[in-house]
Amino acid sequence: MPFLGEALALASAFLYAASAVAIAKGSETRPDDGGAALLSVVVTGALAGGLWLLLGPEVPGWDGMAWRGVAFFVLAGVLANLIGRALMFRSVALAGAIETGILRRLIPVFAAILAILLLGERITPATAVGVALVFAAVAITVLRRGLPEKGGPARGRGRVLATVSAAGFGGAFVARKAGLAALPDPLLGTLVGAATGALAYLPLALRGGMARGLPSGWQVAAAVAISLGQIALFFALSFTTVTAVAVIGACEMFFSAYLAAFLLRTEPWPGPAFVLSSLLALAGAAAIAVG
Asked: What is the dihedral of CA 120, 104, 218, 223, to 10 degrees?
């Protein structure tokens, strides 16, 4: 189906944005200690596992290629959950949803470079125009708003964590695509990645490093949103390139700003320049879809 991969990538960006805003809102009353990230991994595994049992295709045979796919899914789980997701939760709590969203725009940079080097992906002229429009939109927003100069060491740590998180997510894009090439089952890939993340968080939970008690409503909302976003992202990679999915994912920055400003009022209202940037980003996503 034409444009299905790009549409799923846009939906994934919206869901990730919603999760980032929910994390920021929840951190106002309950600081994150890793429990929210673990919850999101568990929810992802439950959703993906349930859908796989109901709708997933039968694995044709556990040969070498199938296990190769599983190995890449495990690698993607480590990169996305242990590095990308956990550090994103901490970064949002320290630096805020919009600032984390800005620094997470490095994800398509890492993803595109690795996809070209490791997967041999090529960029068409239309895709190049779309990439340019999206990055122009991000550049306008960053130059217009800038990163807050104040905030102390905590905000600085949040920025570093956001950058490392972006590197983890960028590498996970490539690992997922490689896994799908060997084992084309997005739901199984999501399930394996979530199980890997849960195993990574388990030692911290057993050591008592995470808070006891029930999660907050915002933490649950963030977990559900990020889980659905990851499932949508896996399916998007099944239909289009790493570069397309990663660059369209940059629209998360604009979604998070509108959600934070208009619905939850946790961030300042976007101005005319931000609206223009949003339109440029959407135009870029459309160009990538056509390409």
From this structure: 20
| C-alpha to C-alpha distance for 235 and 184, rounded to whole angstroms | 10
> Quick one: pLDDT at residue 146?
55
Given this model, what pLDDT does residue 72 score? 95
Give the residue extent of every domain in the chain: 4-290
- Residue 265, phi-psi category: left (phi > 0), alpha (psi -120 to 50), beta (remainder): left
Encode pLDDT of 65-108 as tens digits. Answer: 889 999 999 999 889 877 887 787 788 778 776 677 677 777 88
DSSP H helices, 107-185, are: 107-114, 125-145, 152-182
Q: What is the dihedral of CA 99, 48, 11, 90, to 10 degrees?
A: 0
Q: How many CB atoms lie under 10 A from the CB of residue 2?
A: 9
Tokens of 77: 């789980």
Helices (H) and strands (E) in the chain, counts: 13, 0
Gap between the Cα atoms of 137 and 281, Å rounded? 6
Tally Cβ neighbours within 10 Å of residue 24.
Answer: 23
Residue 115 CA neighbour count, 13 Å, CB half:
25
Q: For 224, phi and psi rounded to 5 degrees?
A: -65, -45
Integer Cα distance of 262 and 221 in angstroms:
18
CA distances from 109 to 173, 177, 269 (A): 11, 16, 28
Q: Encoding tokens for residue 29? A: 């009353």
